[in-house]
Amino acid sequence: MLSLGNDLLEEPEPVSNSNTALSSQRTLRPLDHSSGRRPLPAMRHYLLEAIAERLPCPYQVAGCEVALATCEVEEHARECFFRDMLCPLGTLNTCFWTGKLTQLMDHFRQNHPLNCNICNESDMQVSGICEDRDMHYVYLIAQTNMHFLITVKTATVDKAVHICIQYIGSKEEARRYIYEIHINSVHDAASRVVFVERCFNDTIQVDDIFRESKCVSIPLRKLRHYVEDEKLAFKFVIKKEAQSSALKKK
Ligand SMILES: [Zn+2]
Ligand SMILES: [Zn+2]
Fold first, then answer.
1. What would the DSSP string read from start to end of 174-219?
2. What top-level branch of life does the organism fall under (predicted)?
3. Ligand number, closest to the Cα atom of 79
4. Of 26, 94, 179, 205, whose CA is between 20 and 30 Å from 188?
């Protein structure tokens, strides 16, 4: 019969192996006979050390109070709310503005008024939709204190319309949002298509999203029923994904 006495609480003798430093350093701690357990060794407080080693965000001066592990600093700085941003239209119209996210809408209103003043669930219309011309629109949308970019692009190379909406901020926050694109036929009001996609954040290159089709992508030949005079009308809806549906997917 097995004895469950103190003997079973003894650490096994180290395997004799003079080639390993580990085996030569292992020693038994004295047994506490009142409890039958060995006293805990002096432990390093790794958690406390990790907390103590956390670094401030590089944009602390601008107002960010996040403390980060060393390995988190670079990624956080890229998507920090307080970071210095380039104008999202910079690559399209050589705007060289840099500033904070809180200043971005004012910059758009003053310098790119046709690319803002759009509300969630707005009806939108973009022109120049045809197979023979590249076209690229970027709009800024503000919803309370959150900002989104909506990009519409056609390219002669793939003859498709791509639409995506990006959350300006962290990847984690972005994943909480989904968007719907409703396209109504100009020829038949009863005919419409609705696409639903998940938002990415703005640190991901929009062309990478398009290339991987992680957005709304429609071949132009399939859109003929929906386009008139090279104009495409659609409505977009941005909303937080319901927590219940998020749980179901896990
Ligand atoms: Zn920060
Ligand atoms: Zn600009």
1. HTTEEEEEEEE-SS-TT-EEEEEEE-EETTS-HHHHHHTT-SEEEE
2. Eukaryota
3. 1
4. 179
The architecture in CATH of the region 118-249 reads Sandwich (2.60)
Q: What is the pLDDT of residue 54?
A: 87
Q: Where are the domains of the chain?
A: 43-80, 84-113, 118-249
Place 64 in a pLDDT band, splitting at 50, 70 and 90: very high
Q: How far is the CA of 94 from the centre of ligand 2 (A)?
A: 8
Poorest-pLDDT segment among 8-17, 114-123, 178-187: 8-17
User: Over 80: is that where the pLDDT of 42 sits?
Assistant: no
Q: How many A from CA of 73 to the centre of ligand 1?
A: 8
Closest ligand by atom to 68 CA = 1
Encode pLDDT of 141-150 as tens digits. 998 889 999 9
Give residue 92 CA to ligand 2 midpoint distance, Å. 9
Distance 205 CA to ligand 1 centre (A): 21
Output the CA 78–ligand 1 centroid distance in Å. Answer: 9
Ligand nearest to the CA of 109: 2
Q: What is the pLDDT of residue 18?
A: 41
pLDDT tops 60 at residue 14: no
Is the pTM higher than 0.85? no
